[in-house]
Design a protein that fits this description.
Elements lengths: L42 H14 L17 H17 L2 H11 L16 H4 L3 H10 L2 H13 L10 H9 L12 H16 L2 H18 L17 H17 L7 H18 L6 E2 L9 E2 H17 L4 H16 L21 H5 L8 H15 L1
Helix pairs in contact: 1-2, 1-15, 2-3, 2-5, 2-15, 5-6, 5-8, 6-8, 8-9, 8-10, 9-10, 9-11, 10-11, 10-12, 12-13, 12-15
């Protein structure tokens, strides 16, 4: 590190407070690759540094825009969720209070920053109040979070695309379906958190069905994913969103869900392919299948997260994947400065049918796209 730190169906409050471990049996052994850390590289130290950095940074705008934001952006949401989970797994009441205090103004003077559930990138915001409910038991957070999760499967009151949206709803899919890889974290996260908070199977079951629809559309034979059907490139963070989304689902999806085996098989296929594309520096490229492309940290952190949890849960072979995940983690830690900002984070990226466009994206240090999955890795190590 560049720093001086050198029981399914049960209401979530009775489950593990971090909100990512379901009340189901799973491998809880501490793998040897995940136990011994040099000073400054342990998940606990990094989690403390990066979560405190989140607390001190004001609400950011998108892609480093210095102007005040119009709403809470999805990268901040994802980092907020990560910090909350870290507070839960470490039982850090002070951090939890700080994270709740960041939220409370959204009921008053900062209400204008609360996103509407009108797009996957906005609807994922509901994970924050749901996680606050899981850890505090405050019903107002539950009501707010459920509003977001439910809206994802309810026809918008005002829309010019009613026929298109109804066709999706008739198939059991969210009207927010668009078949971009980013979606499969955004949808999986909010629906999984709603399931964890309520114990209502409809949330996790419909998220699993949604995932399978995306697997059918954009997963390629090698296990990786195009950004979208008309953007045929294996963009790093895009694939990271998919890896993290499948990981979120599998961590909570009941064994009797009919789509579980399909999702697990697709996850394993992706993880197997990622093994061959890890670069010598421990990270993955901005374009996953091009080792000459620049090393990108946010997608790499998402891949590491998926592998850490896969090893811990027994979905992946420990001897094969634990060393890979450890190498990636140490590489990521080496990109974190003394403030807690990670370097090498690809800026927010729209889809396009232009390979050079992806290669030319700017790296933004400290961008929440990267801060978030670092915190997810920390909690996966510690849970």
């Amino acid at each position: 590190m560049r720093s001086k730190l050198s029981a399914t169906g049960v209401v979530a409050r009775r489950c593990v407070a971090v909100g990512i471990a379901v009340c189901l049996p799973y491998l809880a052994t501490a793998q040897k690759e995940f136990k011994h850390w040099e000073k400054g590289t342990s998940p606990r130290e990094v989690g403390e540094l990066v979560s405190q950095r989140f607390v001190e940074v004001p609400h950011p705008n998108f892609n480093g825009n210095p102007a005040p934001p119009n709403e809470i952006t999805y990268p901040e949401t994802c980092a907020w969720l990560g910090a909350l989970r870290y507070a839960g797994v470490t039982k850090d009441k002070k951090l939890l209070r700080q994270l709740e205090e960041r939220f409370l103004p959204l009921f008053g003077p900062e209400r204008y920053l609360q996103p509407l559930p009108d797009h996957v990138d906005h609807t994922v915001f509901g994970t924050v109040p749901l996680q606050l409910y899981i850890q505090t038991g405050n019903e107002i957070y539950l009501r707010m979070g459920k509003w977001y999760a439910d809206a994802q499967w309810e026809m918008p009151r005002k829309t010019k695309r009613k026929e298109e949206y109804q066709a999706l709803l008739d198939k059991g899919l969210s009207w927010q379906t668009r078949y971009w890889i980013d979606d499969m974290f955004m949808i999986s996260a909010i629906q999984s958190q709603a399931y964890l908070a309520t114990g209502d199977r409809k949330y996790i079951d419909r998220a699993a069905a949604e995932m399978v629809s995306y697997l059918d559309k954009i997963q390629r034979p090698n296990g990786l994913f195009f950004h979208a059907e008309d953007a045929p490139f294996f963009w790093g963070r895009g694939n990271g969103w998919m890896a993290a989304g499948m990981t979120e689902l599998l961590g909570l999806l009941p064994e009797d869900n009919p789509n579980r085996e399909r999702i697990l098989a697709s996850y394993r296929k992706m993880m197997e392919t990622l093994l061959s594309y890890q670069k010598e520096d421990g990270l993955w490229g901005q374009l996953v299948d091009d080792k000459s492309s620049w090393s990108e940290t946010s997608g790499s952190a998402m891949f590491a997260y998926a592998m850490i949890r896969g090893v811990r849960r027994g979905w992946l072979d420990e001897a094969t994947y634990a060393p890979v995940a450890r190498k990636a983690w140490l590489a990521l830690v080496g990109q974190i400065d003394e403030k807690g900002d990670i370097a090498g984070v690809c800026e927010g990226t729209n889809k396009t049918n232009d390979r050079q466009f992806y290669l030319d994206r700017r790296p933004l240090p400290g961008n929440m796209h990267g801060q978030a999955p670092v915190l997810w890795c920390v909690t996966a190590f510690l849970e």
